[in-house]
Amino acid sequence: MKAAPFDYLRASSLDEAIEALAETPDARVLAGGQSLVPLLNLRQVRPPLVVDINRIDGLSVLHKENGRLEIGALTRHRVVETSAVVHSEVPLLAEALGYVGHVAIRNRGTIGGSLAHADPAAELPAVMVALDAEFRVHGPEGERPIAARDFFLGPHRTALGPGELLTRISVPSHRGGSAVEELSRRSRDLALVAVFATVTMSGGVCETARIAVAGAGPTPIRATAAEESLTGRALTADAIAAAADLAADATDPPGDLHAPADYRREMAAVLTRRAITRAKEGA
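RESULT FIELD:
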């Protein structure tokens, strides 16, 4: 199939894009197009207007600033994945991007586009929740920050208001151990379940732990009870197993033809156990 007819605007500035989005509430934004174009061609979405933001200056940036990694919304997946500063400052993000589609997809797909698409089985939303990232959003009323944990409201639903556009992602540097564990039907498919974990250690004791789960609920799930159970303790096999069970308890997985809910919940525990163990070794 091919897309239903729509108007097309190649925005030359952020203000032009925001104005167009505000005037046409059902308009869609074209960044990398790796999620949008299939939806258009299958006619699962029929927007009256598509706003192309690829020519807007300042949205493709990647640098370290004040202990944080600053990423423009138009920055391509592959640029972030192969960046030396990302591998050094936020290795969890670099590892997670290796699971996002195939290289051809990552060459074109954008960080902001993936996040705004808000697929609960996608890697990037859960990574950003695990890392306590902050998003910068521009709209008719100006700029505002949104914490990653508050950005995702449901499947393909975000906290973006009318006319608002995600423009930048700010991620704190992390020097501890980290790990990604993912289960999918085929290599580089969307995850049935995926776990993203970071750990910092001091004298054999866990100082901090961060755990997020994708594919196990309507939004990325931050397993705070599991994190708290690990903090201030030695990461023994028993402690890790108990935390993994808590992480699984926090999930609300869907059941479908690919995997029943109970199986996803069980795999959330298995993958959490593996991720924490690997993150501990890296720390």
